Each structure stands twice: as structure tokens, then as C-alpha cells.
Amino acid sequence: MQIKPIKLTSKSKKIVDKTNRYVVKGTFTYPLVIKSGKSVFIQDVDNNWYLDFNSNVCSANIGYNHPEIAKVLKEYCSSSAHKIAGQDFYSEEQMKMAEKLIKITPSNLTKVFLSNSGAEAMENSIKFAYRKKGPLSGISCTGAFHGRTLGALTYTFSKPVQKKNYPELPHIRINFCTSDSDPKIDDIKDLLAKRKVAFVMTEIVQGEGGYNIASQKFIRNLRETTREYDVPLIIDEVQSGIGRTGKWWAFENYNIKPDIIGSAKSLQIGATISSKEYDPNEAGAVSSTWGGGDRIDLAVGLKMIEVIEKEKLISKASKTGKYILSRLKELENVYPDKVFNARGLGLMLAIDLQSTEIRDKVEERAFRNGLLLLGCGSKSIRIVPPLIINEEEVDMGIRILESAIKKIN
Q1: Together in a domain, 304 and 338
Q2: CA pair distance 86, 103, nearest whole angstrom
């Protein structure tokens, strides 16, 4: 598909203006009003086409209008009970999703609790740990993002605006180490030797915090030390899970097994996946009216997993990610005063620019030329296209990105 410079009409403007009038201020980046999509491209209400390098924040791992997904939606379009109280009534869709998740996770993880979102997945991960260990402090990392519900928000440490004036649970913060030589990499050992905690929680690749990639030693230290002191290790796979890093789960790149996982986005629903030890195993300990009850989203999420398996998209993500990283490093070499710190794990990649202001300008220029990017951290741009993207489409996106970078003064 050919991407042309974008022409926005009064239709887009009217929708944007009315949204801003009636909807609480969100995190809208540019005036994109989505109408449809196909493969790795999104169409807006003005019939402009964009190459998608953010996958709706990793929620569209197999792109748009995939025939297998279209078939599922067609099958469910006549259902008169597409959304039920999923923790009060059984459905085949919930059963199949839970069964599939257990099959693609390590053998120590045996139970699934379904919810509506990534924040709920992490909130319930925290509750699972508290149920076993009691209301002690939990540990998370600098730069972390675990969601915006109040419990998960306590353990988020990404941007001050996300936390201002909101109450917090007892918590402890440790440094998120991206290098094995980080002088704080052994802090967890001293900390757990001195006090009892309810859990340790971390991402493998930080999302909102800036696409920082944990060092191997850091993650191994967390796993070994939490096991030594009988503390549950919770891994946040909300953005990184379901094949994006070249494995089903990002932690598999580190050869560890957590006690609890929180997942969402590509699943279309939230999921807390737990070992038997941290399963609350008591009716009413956790529940949710709609958790496990959106039958369409469950069917679509399950089909996404099946498509990823069938089309071997996990190995493709690893291969394509290496190609994109090589292209980003080329930009780094050509524009050493403008592009920094190209990095990635599978198809979770990022670059840094000189400042937040410059990063935002590059995003806007790319949008006007048909490329959808998304910032993270203070000055980073994440590169997270659908897993189905090919090298020709990658090159198209890199050309647009480079054109935007060239115009930096």
C-alpha cells in the first residue's frame, strides 16, 4: 500500500473537537480518528491510510482485518448474549482462553483469573500476593508502569502526572537495572534479608517508562532472591506478552519462571496467571462482573493466539526485530547528534531523541506523512508494529521516520 501525505478534513476536526468538549482529557497524541484497518495499516474517517508502528499500544499483534478474526466476528454478530457476568456464569469462551493460556505458560502456572484490562490484571496479581503474604509492603522498580487503578498505580513510577494526589499502599522502590554492572543490581538481596515483603513486581521491558530492557543478571537476581526468601515474583507482561519479544512471554528470554503473570492488550482482555501456591482458592476472594464475560473479546483474543501459532509469528517477530534494530542503528550512525540508544527485544524497540519537545515534533511530522508512532519515557519513541509486518513495510516506515528526524533543527 502506498502512503501519501495526510489531508485532514472538517470531519476529523469535528469529531476531535466534540471529543475534547465532552470527554475527560486523555493522552491523545495526534488527531487520528480511526475508521478501519487492513494488515499493518490504519484508515481514518477521511480515508487517509497510515502505517502503524504502535499496534494500538501492542493490542493489535496480528494487525487489522485478518481473515481469521473477521470470521470470528461474523460468527458472533448475531449473538444475543455476547457479554455475560463471566465470574457468575460459565462460558465456553472463558474456558478455552484459560486452557490456552495455561498451555503457553510454564508448567508451574496453573490457574487463570480473567478481567477487563491490564491494570486489573496487575491489580489482581497484587491481591493474589497479599492474600497469601498479608498486607505488607510490595516492591516495584523505578520507571515502572503497572496501570492506573489505585493499587497498581502505587507501584507505577513512570511520570509524576500519573500519581499526583492519589493515595498509595505501603511500597518500596528499587532501581530497574539495564546493565549487569549497575552498582544497585544486588540491592534486592540486602533488602529481602532485612524485611518481609508481600511481593516483588517488575516488567522485563518497561513500557511507559521508556522501553528500558532489564539486564539478565537483574532478573536472575530477583528470581533467585525471591525464591530464597519465599516471596512471590510478579512479572508484568501486559505490553510485552503474547509473542512480541520473540517468545510467548518476555521473561522466557531470561530463562526464569515467575509465580504470577499479568497480561492483557493482545489478549483483548486482562488475565492474571498464577501458580497453585498463590491461587486464592476461595469463592469471593476475587471476582468481576465482566471478567471473563465478554465472549467476543475472548474469542478474538484466543484466535489471535492461534494465528500467532499457525503463522509462526513468534520466530518472525524475533527475525524482524533484529532487522528493525539494524535500521535504527543505521539512523543512530547517520544522525549521531539526533538519535541515541537504539535498543530492542524482538518487536519491542525504541530510540531516544534529544528532548521531549523534539520527540513530540518527530511524532507529529511522521503522523502528517502517514506513520503512526508513540512516545514513551521522557524522550523515547517506541517502534512496535504488528508481528505480521514485512521488511518492505519496515523500510517504508523507517524512511518516513528518517524524513521527520532530518528536519530537526
Answers
A1: no
A2: 21
Three-state SS at 318: helix
Q: Are residues 150 and 237 in the same domain?
A: yes
Write out the E strands in 122-225: 138-141, 171-174, 199-203
Residue 72, H or E segment? helix 67-76
Contact present, 329 and 319 (Cβ < 8 Å): no
Question: Are the C-beta atoms of residues 388 and 40 closer than 8 Å to each other?
Answer: yes
CATH of the domain at 167: 3.40.640.10
Mark which of 259, 288, 310 sits at the end of a domain. 310
Per-residue pLDDT of the chain (409 residues), as tens digits, is 888 888 888 999 999 999 999 999 999 999 999 999 999 999 999 999 999 999 999 999 999 999 999 999 999 988 889 999 999 999 999 999 999 999 999 999 999 999 999 999 999 999 999 999 999 999 999 999 999 999 999 999 999 999 999 999 999 999 999 999 999 999 999 999 999 999 999 999 999 999 999 999 999 999 999 999 999 999 999 999 999 999 999 999 999 999 999 999 999 999 999 999 999 999 999 999 999 999 999 999 999 999 999 999 999 999 999 999 999 999 999 999 999 999 999 999 999 999 999 999 999 999 999 999 999 999 999 999 999 999 999 999 999 999 999 988 7
Q: Does residue 279 fall inside a structural domain?
A: yes
* CATH of residue 28: 3.90.1150.10
Rounded Cα gap, residues 203 and 238, in angstroms: 9
